[in-house]
Amino acid sequence: MKKRYIISLILVASMFVLAACGGGKDTASDASDKQVLRVIESTEIPLMDTSLATDGVSFTAMNQVFEGLYTLDSKDQIIPAAAEAMPQISKDQKIYTIKIRDNAKWSDGSDLTADDFIYAWRKVVNPKSGAQYSFLYRDVVANASDIIDGKKDPKELGVKALDDKTIEIQLTQAVPYFNSLLTFGPFYPQKEAYVSKEGKDFAKDSDHLLYNGPFTMSDWSGTSKSWSFIKNDNYWDKKNVKLDRIDVQVAKEPGSAVNLYNTGKVDRAPLTGDYASQYKDNKEFVAEPDSYVYWLKFNQKQSDVANVELRKAIAKAINKEALADTVIANGAVPINGEIPNGFAQNPKTGKDFREDSGDHLTYNVAEAKEHFAKAKQQLGKSEITLELVGDDQEFAKKTLEFIQSELQTNLDGLKINLKTVPYKNRLALDKAQDYTVQLSRWAPAYKDPMTYIASWQTDNNYNNMSYSSPAYDKLTTDISTTLATNPEARWQAMLQTEKVLLDDDAAIAPLYQNATAVLEKPYVKGVVKHLFGAPYSFRWAYLEK
């Protein structure tokens, strides 16, 4: 496929719209004189503990109220945040020395220190924490792998404070994308004294959190369907934060948001399916680039989908183009691979990853039937029944229904039972590996194909489907170690991972690269959509009325 900008339908990421609502907050007339942004989120926030969160909704919220050493600007360039400058890097690219801003503070007015980062990072890699994103540290920060595997104490992580405001980081080898990692949630700081004081109450609601980002948080109960972000008076760059407040409420049905937009009660509304088609020529239609990829995950602990022929049959029996064009219908495109279009380019030729890698597990009913016949023979069954799990949002339900119809129509003898659950519950089922087949997706944590590729290593915390391939593990290890400073050889190895993961093993079944279309009033300015890391930033947003 040609390189193109894609737009993302917000699932795990945030869908924001301005809302003129009362309920004890500013009235619409009051808000016209203030910088109060009213927005809608697609679902409740699962977690606000930066060491444990794994989803786009949590990361969007955390990105407003916390800040790492670095952040992303409006063009996804890495810029200093809590750090006063870009890192000093040793000649062998293994030692990073970073100075924290003298005026970087927590929302209680206390200084942000090197120890706050060290404490938080040790917490992530500590196996007792159960942090799924600990894999971002594995084979990256010195001793992280041994700590995660329980072989070393978290205090042996390769980080140390040279003084209160200076942190030194030792890597296991050169890591080309390390600066972008430092912008992401699992690398945010936490204040040990505060976390210890709060104990089990830490991060359970907005009253039990300490913030160092552009905003603080209020009125979030841990399960509530509304909350607010308030401008942080102790933020080091508060003079450039234009919004006074952001009011957020959950709305899972995109149709209601469109209705609010058309009746003048909101200023930004997500579009999917028929809505996207209907409004695509509207002057207030906005398309936002993204890198979300949707796929089916197969739990290989389950006896039937442990069969590779069955997985290949399922992957090839779904008309991905029809799914993207008629069900999602917002600019999403079918994808025959893991790495999205426009995300990474060959360091020598500049060709897009998707073009270099080619197509894998393409839609082919005849081949799907052949694989299914082999699967039934190998499993000794004439009929197979599987459960397909997905989220309870409207579009997700339609996606599941489409997949069910495709599989049952194209594969005679296959029955698909659907199970829809709240977003937070699906994440729990995934973590517990309590599913057979799951509609899932991945948003890149950093700007490198390894943010996708690493997910399927045997010991990766996101794997959660018992996929294990010595060939795949060797490739990923080589990419992170011996090939780390050889861009061309590293690229070829990354291309090879798709052949193993998809052509050989059909470990996942890629479906489409997602997209977001929105209606947005012209006076909404500065809302930044990121291609990786946290989905949205509101640090630079404002209303121009």
Automatic annotation (TrEMBL):
Q: Where is the Solute-binding protein family domain?
A: 78-463
Localization annotation = Cell membrane
Q: Which domain of life is it from?
A: Bacteria
Q: Which InterPro entries does the record associate with it?
A: Peptide/Ni-bd, SBP_5, SBP_5_CS, SBP_5_dom
Record's signal peptide = 1-19
Keywords associated with the record: Signal, Transport
Q: Which SUPFAM superfamilies match?
A: Periplasmic binding protein-like II
Membrane topology, record value: Lipid-anchor
Q: Which PANTHER family match?
A: PERIPLASMIC BINDING COMPONENT OF ABC TRANSPORTER, PERIPLASMIC OLIGOPEPTIDE-BINDING PROTEIN-RELATED
Instruction: Return the similarity comment.
Output: Belongs to the bacterial solute-binding protein 5 family.
Q: What is this protein called?
A: Peptide ABC transporter substrate-binding protein
